[in-house]
Amino acid sequence: MIDINIEDFFHDISVTLLSLYQQFPRKISLYIEDISGPDDMDEFGLHSNRYLSAIGAITWLHEEGYIRYSNISHQESVEDCTLTQKAFVKLIRPTFEVDRDTELSSVEKHQNTLAQRLHSALKEQSSIKQRSLLEEHLLAP
Q1: What is the pLDDT of residues 82-113, one digit of tens each?
Q2: Contact 50/41 with Cβ under 8 angstroms?
Q3: What pTM value is reported for the model?
Q4: Domain count for the chain
């Protein structure tokens, strides 16, 4: 059985981290709809579960020390949002072990960072690759 909420969680984390990485070190306003897609509010003005899950993923990243922000404004945007040092280092490190004797070009190093590999997985719309990368490089103890 596929847990769609977990796949959405990994997608939301990927989009959030890459959005902040692309603007690093600036603090930005991060709009929830840019992460979750358009929101379908119900007749009472309540946000969809998908939209609320994106807010949950952002909150989780904050609580785990991967991002910082000043506040979530009216459940529409995250204000003054940026990566922490912990997240930035994980995103720029090569995702494989390199021997001391092996010399990599700067292009090879860039192509094998977590940020670049997540970007490729998002572009390919591969939730399996996103999940695998995040489990191995972000969630591993």
Answers
A1: 999 999 999 998 876 554 445 655 555 557 89
A2: no
A3: 0.87
A4: 1
